[in-house]
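Sharing a chain and its predicted structure for anyone who wants a worked example. Both blocks are below, sequence first, tokens second.
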Amino acid sequence: MGMYDTFETDPELESKGVWIDYGDFRVLLASAGQGNKNYVKYAEKKLKPVRRALESGALSNDRSQALMADIYAKTVILAWETMQGKEMKSGIESPDGKILPFNSANVEQALSALPRMFTDIQEQAASLANYRKAELENDTKNS
């Protein structure tokens, strides 16, 4: 596999997203990287005031997580669907099992309440494999 097969991504997928299926819910994730211009621009704006604290290690983990949850909720997580009955419908499950509307505030709340889920979402959004052209071509051939 050459370097282009390894690193070339589909720009449309990076900006429009890929579905990551977690069974009872799924999340449409745009790339958390250079291919997602909204992410780059908004992250730069949100992180600029705390850049020195970030670089010196003085920014608390709680503040850092809150900033990243805001950034992801507004630029990376494009849709959220939850199993309702026998089909996936737009919405996010709350701690009491109710389905809340998909919006950035509810996404931030879920990311803050479930940090391990947030970590997995961050890994998926940063994963080159989810947006690579070679992976997509192989998936299409195997379908």
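Comments welcome. Residues 46 and 119 are 19 Å apart (CA to CA).
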